[in-house]
Amino acid sequence: MSDAKVRRPAPSLFEVIDAVERRGLPDVEVYWKRGRSRQLRSGKEGIQATVREEAGWAVRAGDGDRSLFFATTGAPRPHVAWPEPRPAGLRLPVARTVAEWRPPSDLEASLLGEVECQGLLEAVRRALENEHPGARLLRGFVEDGSSEVEIASTHGVACVHRNRTAEIRLWAATGSGFQAQVSMAAREARRLSPTALARRLADRLAVKERGEEVVTRDRGEILLAPEVGAALLAALAPLFQRRRAREVGWETLQELADQSGRIGGRALTVIDDGRLAGGFFEAPIDGEGMPTREVVLVEEGILRQPLLPFWEEAGPRQRISGCRLRRGWRGLPETGPTHLYLRPTSGLGVATLLEEVARGYYFIDVAGSPRLDFSSGRLALPVVGFEVRGGRPVRPIRQAWLAGGLGPFLRGIQATARDLTFFPLATAIGSPSLLLAGLEVRSEP
Amino acid sequence: MPQFPPLAFPDLDVRAVARTLARLAGPEAEAVDAFFERREILELPPQREAPGVRLWREEGFALRLLEGGRAWIASRDGLDRERYAAACRQVARRPPDRETQTEVTFGAWPEPPTAAPLEDVPRALERFLRESGAAFPFEARVRLHRRWVQVVGDRIAPPAQQESFFSLAVEHPAGRYGCLLNTLSPEALVGVAEAMAEQVQARKAEPPPPGRTRVTLGAAAAAVFLHEAVAHSLEADTLALSGRPEAALGLPFAAAGVTLLDDPSAAPEGVARSVDDEGMTVLRRWLLRDGVVEQPLADRQWAAGGRLEPGSGWRGDRHQAPSPRTYHLELLPGAASRDELLAGDGIYVARVERGLLDPLRGDVTLHVPGGRTIAGGELGARLGRFVLRGRVQDLLQAVEIVGAERRIAGAGWCAKGGMKVPVWAATPALRLAAVEVGLP
Fold first, then answer.
1. CA-CA distance, A409 to A404, in Å (whole number)?
2. From the list B74, B75, B237, which residue is nearest A45 (CB)?
3. A-interface mutation test, from B38, B40, B56, most A Cβ less than 10 A away
4. Which of B40, B55, B323 best tests the A interface by mutation, with the highest count of A CBs <10 A?
5. What is the rounded CA–CA span in Å between residue B34 and residue B151?
6. A283 close to A163: Cβ distance less than 8 angstroms
7. Measured between CB atoms, which of B44, B50, B175 is closest to A90?
8. Quick check: pTM over 0.90?
9. pLDDT tens for each residue of B164-197
């Protein structure tokens, strides 16, 4: 592995590998993760400050016929109560060359202290009062954490890397009782802007307080803020890998495509990138030690390739994606995106897109979970925002449903702005503001 | 029934821990406690899914200091002198002294469980399906969960607690079925097979037409309904979203005849608890007595005001702070016979797949994988997937009659605020006068 500071995994991982090999299992992988985080919660129950330190390791081992998984807390050690392997052959990936990666400098920054976390929430509270007089912060949650992962295997994998992620969640209410919530993440907590967070909350509170319900079905041009685009993309995430038994997947998109593999217009480019510079989960390797890279899933509306784990690789056009994620040391690797996003358009501002909405809507936030029925291809998402006429918001809308078909949604994306923003939604999902047609605005899903 | 070893923390010196906690607690401290935990999961995945067996064993602790409306918590994986001392320093927010440099250790793990009871489950389910005339492919994931907990306070050290139960996740042609069981007895597995068969048989059935209708909830479905509509609504932190939790005391919440308790000590064998995850003695807590709120669910922090009772503080694990949750719901039986529960016309729901409470709007949604029509007092045609919706208090006021026969049913995982805990229940069936039926 090429890195500015090459570090091999600790000898204890190889001691474990030796011990498991001596038990007759030739294919062995050891994964060790240590992490530290500081959390601050503020709400009606008071303030809760938590320092959390986690450390655990896991082994996958087997041969062509049988296998086992064992995970436990602490540091890797060879003498544990190994379970007896059971029938199911195990395949582990063979080590690959990892492209050069320099650890970002902000990995070295210290975690936010308790006082800093409180200061951040207090700054949001003050900024919110300025933005929306009478509004108050109901609850706040800040978490800032760092971790280190070491992976070693009998197939040559020997990797070490570090991560850093911070998240903030805020709940606020107006004096008249309308509530709103925002969540943001960043690699380092000091990058979170209290003013920007307060403005997001204030915008949503204002719409909820003054907004009206939608009473009729309507169509038109629809501008979606990044939050809304990201919520829709998150719901579609299962479609970007091959279908497993009884589930949806890439094949669902292929069924929507025309003969040239087109599912949308030129504005539709979907990318996953495990080593996205500045991403919350930026890393040179995935949870199996495979190299991460930018994977273009859909390019200007045309299907390119799904996320591919190592055993589904098939030639230069269907290359391994570095897409095997582990949710901590307890988790087994699962295929999925790391930083999944719609490609923005450099130089195109949101205001320019808004001006193009002669008659339509601008939705700035989601008001609940999306409903997506893959079998019928129908989707619906509760949203809040504005009715737009002549490029200007004219009426706030407290809640409406954005509804329609999956195919029309994908084909209807006409333009993306430059304001790509990522959100912590199970994984990192990003979207710029989107201008689209083809969906309906309704009062019910 | 899995047998527990005599002690899960054979070498933990509870007195030494109590002494260190006493040193941490300053004059203003309201409480200081240490939570020690060991957890073990043994899983057999579906056949041919690698790895063919999975074993998780984890241990650790959390220290907590409550003072002046604030809580300081330090949580760790593992346990040794250095970790414990560092955690003491963090919650006390001062350098360690000699007393907190104490030897603390768990001691050896018990022997790992054998996989044999889990191996039989898929074969047993196949057999029961065949005997009932159903035959379809399925894949079962079976887990044995064991957990040991010891809470120590600066003045008290309640008995160590232990839980042992099974979880089942089955994939079949109509989707998924999941449940928690305290036993893998033939009776319990017959119930699982029945639930699977109902889901598969409902797969091709038409859903009921949208509208309002009378609904009879079987015991398992009633448990999920009451969990979402009552238990979640009466958690102190949920009540606090719209005011003071104490304001709910004495509030008429459900129809007369609905008396609902939370009693962890009465939970099924293997999962009964005498203290909660804060070391507080559990209560036979009357959530609703004849439809009126008597005692919401509260932990130590929410009970500090004086009018709520602690004893419902539960943790997903040592890294999560306690919060008010239900553990074992019991609905007192009524007098209604099966014929009375099925009288007239309506819909019968045996099981609810999942439920969701919107605490701000006060709406509850129950996702039903399939049901049956009730016509003229008889169960009729199968119904496909649908949802039941309504405002919490409207639904609870719509309870017409309560069945006479109570069953252990409806156990499952409850996820709220990033914390997943097992919940148990014993309820009879219920009939509701008018419920909105819709499509998912």
1. 7
2. B237
3. B56
4. B55
5. 6
6. yes
7. B50
8. yes
9. 999 999 999 888 999 999 999 999 999 999 999 9
